[in-house]
Amino acid sequence: QAQLGVAQAGEAVERVLSQVARGLVERGVRQLVVAGGETSGACVQALGIERLRIGPQIAPGVPWCHADCAAAGGDGLHIALKSGNFGATDFFTGAFDVLPP
Q1: DSSP characters over the chain
Q2: pLDDT tens digit string along 75-90?
Q3: Against a cut of 0.70, is the pTM above it?
């Protein structure tokens, strides 16, 4: 942040994390939890997701979603998009317990 400024540093982190998400999906990962509102938007865009089908609730305000995903070659992807102020301290460990088979 000292070198780039807050906004540019944040954009750089979002860009890297969205590319990590895309790389994981291209390698076969079909379940992702993405934290951070801006990061979630960057990941959705990088993955080529245009529509989400809402699934079971992980925590109030945070459902699992299902999407047809361009980065997955058109295969389905389960994704949870969590902004910073949703979910309890065990959100990440409990999220996959809620995921439908």
Answers
A1: -TTT-HHHHHHHHHHHHHHHHHHHHHTT--EEEEESHHHHHHHHHHHT----EEEEEEETTEEEEEEE-GGGTT-EEEEEEE-TTSS-TTHHHHHHHHS--
A2: 899 999 998 777 788 8
A3: yes
